[in-house]
Structure formats: C-alpha cells, structure tokens
Amino acid sequence: MSNSFDYIIAGSGLAGLSLLHRLVQDSQFAAKKILVIDGEQKTKNDRTWCFWEKGEGIFEPVVHHSWSTLSFFTPEFSKIFQMQSYRYKMILGDDFYRHVLDGAAKNPNITFHTGNIVKIYTEGNRGVVQTDTDSFDGEYIFNSTNLFYPEITTENSLLQHFLGWKIKVEQPIFNPKEATLMDFTLDQKHGTTFMYMLPTTPQEALVEYTLFSPEVLEREEYEGELRKYIREKLQIDSFEITHEEFGIIPMSLARFERSSGAEKRIINLGTAGGFTKASTGYTFYFVQKHLDDLVVSLRQGKSPALSKTFQDRKYDWYDRTLLDVLLNKKIGGREIFAQLFKNLPPESVLAFLANESTAWEEFRIRHSVPLTAFIGSGMRQLF
User: Fold this and answer.
1) 378: enclosing H helix or E strand
2) pLDDT tens profile 193-205
3) Which of 68, 70, 200, 263 could form a disulfide with 181 if both were Cys (CB 3.0 to 4.6 A apart)?
4) Separation CA 297–CA 227 (nearest Å)
5) Helix/strand/coil for 193
6) Mean pLDDT score of the chain, rounded to an integer?
7) Exposed (0-12), middle (13-18) or buried (19+): which is 27, by Cβ within 10 Å?
8) Average of pLDDT values for 305-329?
9) How far apart are alpha carbons 326 and 321 in whole angstroms?
C-alpha cells in the first residue's frame, strides 16, 4: 500500500475512534484516504464511559443505560434529585468499538495498521508517523498518544484512579432508574475519595471506588474498600463479579498543547490535547465537543488546529483553580462538592462541570465555596 494519506489517526482509543466515526458519517470525507494506527486492535470491553449531556449525542445508539435520577451523599447530608435537562449515560467499550469499526469497515478508503508508534513529527508541510516497522505521512496527524504529554509530577498533578466492579446478585435489589453520582461517606485519608454506583438492571450494578490523590494504592486496598462498601452500605453479602475495570486519569496543571510541529500539522486529541477536565478527570463529553468543532473546521477547508475561545480559557481557569486548591490541600474535595450540591440546584452544578453554565450559575457557584481557600489559587492560575 502507499504510505501517504490525507489523514492519519494515531491511536484508536476514545478520541481517535470518535473522530473516525464523524469522518465516516460525513459524505464530504468519503474520498479521503484515512489511516488508523494503534499497537492493538480494539475488541475488548476495556473501558466504561459515563457522562451527562442534554438530548441525544452522536453515540446515542450505543448508550448502554441512562439515568434521570441521581443521588449524592456525604456524612452530613444526602440529596436525591430528578434531572430535567441532563441525562447521565453509560457507554461500554466493546459496544463503542464495534459501532465505530463496523461503520468504518464499509469504507474502502480507510486503512488500519497495527504497530507501535515511536515518533510523530513534521517534514515540510506533511506530518509523519513512525512505527516500529514503517513510516507514514499525511496532511494532518490526529494524535491521541502520550508522545507530546508535558511533564506530569506530584507537584503539578493529581491522579484520578479507580477500580470498578460490575456485580450481579440473585435477588432484584437495585433500582435501575437511580444512580449514585458520588457517595462521600468514606474515609478521606488518601484525599478526595468516593464511590459511585450505577444499577443497570434490578440485579446488576457497576460499583466503583474512586480517588483523587498523588499516587495509586495497592490493589488489595481498592478491593477491600469495594467489598466493605458492598457489604455495609449496599447490604449485600453474596455477589458475582462479572466485569472489572481499573483506570488512572491525570488531573494536571501541566499545559497540554492542542497542536504540535511545524505548520500545526499534528493535532492532539483527547487527554493529549488537554481535553481531560483538569478538576474532575471527565473526558468523554469534552472530547466529543472538541471533535464536533474540529470536523466543522475541516469541512470548511480550515485548519483543525483550533485556538481556545474565551469560554475555553474561562473554564480552564475554573478547573485549574479548583485543582490548585486540592493540590495544596486547602480544603478537601468532599467539602467542596458538598457545599455545591447542598447550596445549589444540582443541575446547575452539573452544567458548571460540563462547561455549560450561565453567568448567574457561575456567580452562585463562586459564592458557594469558601472564598479564602480559593482566592489565592485563583490569582495564581491567572498567570
């Protein structure tokens, strides 16, 4: 095969395949030669993505389950709320991969190459991807590998790390219409720590132990906390683990660049482009919003190297301020989220965390957290 393409997608995870799906769905790109490179083919159920959004998104056909009722717990108070605008949604990795790859298989101009990516660079007005066996060039390289990550340290970053179990029980004890968004009734000795519990049937639920802290734990501690929560909080003595998932997501003050190389021929996607929300680790929804804009730019014949808007910079500042507060241990994550969910309409909090809040909602949120803990961090993150 020829080693020259119009577009090369380096990495076939969430961001790369989300872009591929948009290109496949759009007839304007039907004649484009597209190469997708990854070290392995995506076939396993290795990810579960959960997010909230209004209406139906591009991946609505593979939403495994959704909830309109959410609960939030701390030792001091609890809140169960019915969402009006948003729905909390779950997508399973194998459903997502199958949906995208089945659609791509119908397009003869799309090529998949299995190989380890060792270098991405520009040469003249072309981007080049070098693997362990070959080199390929394209007009644009859409990169979601970690090759252009900034330095991530314990000084500038926290890790969101988690172990989740999908459990099955014999008796119908779960309410599949209500999900636990955050349960902070846990020991906070490692930092911000919570469970979330997502029932998909009366007998099945995903239970996930999640922390924001500088370092991961020993495997036994995640498992012990999950078993304790299932036994003591959910009152379940006997269950079957049908699936498990472990993950680590950087929550970082480091600067992730949206594009790299001469003439901005390398476009960074997903976490590589800074689309993991620094303050929460949420990625799925922000990747989709970026790619919507990116594809519009491509369709108009413009560069896909999108500059940050005022809105982008504003929410970056909010995120970096909150993360700075957590990094410097001025106040714990449990206290911050408790203040927000206690004092504000929950959907206003969700809109803020989705970068979709109104000016009034932002004003109320700024005045619902301890100002003394945030002022210094906010000033520091302005510069």
Assistant:
1) helix 371-380
2) 999 999 999 999 9
3) 70
4) 48
5) strand
6) 95
7) exposed
8) 95
9) 9
Domain ranges across the chain: 4-43+94-149+256-299, 157-252, 310-380
Q: How confident is the model at residue 236 (pLDDT cuts 50, 70, 90)?
A: very high
* Best CA proximity match to 12, nearest among 125, 115, 108: 115
Instruction: Using alpha carbons, list the distances in angstroms from residue 174 to 141, 169, 215.
Output: 45, 9, 33
Structure tokens that stand for 97 in this block = 């991969």
Query: Mean pLDDT across the stretch 249-260?
Result: 94
pLDDT at 383: 80
Listed in sequence order, the residues at least 6 apart from 367 whose beta carbon sits closer than 8 Å to its beta carbon are none
Diameter of the chain measured on Cα atoms: 64
Phi, psi of 178 (to 5 degrees): -130, 130
User: What are the tokens at 301?
Assistant: 């014949």
* CATH class of this structure's domain 157-252: alpha beta
214/46 Cα distance (integer angstroms): 24
SS percent in the chain: helix, strand, coil, step 5: 30, 30, 35
Say which DSSP state 300 is in.
T
Taking CA atoms, 131 is separated from 113, 137, 279, 286, in Å, by 10, 11, 34, 28
Indicate the Cα dihedral angle 213, 216, 221, 224, nearest 10°: 80
pLDDT of res. 261? 83
Looking at CATH, the fold of the domain delimited by 4-43+94-149+256-299 is given as FAD/NAD(P)-binding domain (3.50.50)
Mean pLDDT score, 277-287: 93
